[in-house]
Write a structure and sequence with these properties.
Length: 60
């Protein structure tokens, strides 16, 4: 979302006008960030059960 300054986030104009391309760094960066988040979640799902801790704490 653009801010109140006319020069603020000017790249958003391409999205508003549907004139962005697949090589657009903003779109690419967005999806890279999303897949990094998925990867981190998968690491948590894989590794947290292996942590040695009190059974009561683990249950909570």
């Amino acid at each position: 979302m653009k801010g109140s300054n006319p020069g603020d986030a000017s790249f958003i104009n391409a999205y508003d006008k549907f004139t962005y391309t697949v090589s657009d760094d903003g779109v690419r960066g967005y999806w890279i960030g999303q897949w990094q988040a998925v990867n981190r979640c998968n690491q948590v799902i894989t590794n947290v059960p292996k942590i040695d801790m009190d059974a009561t704490l683990k249950k909570d």
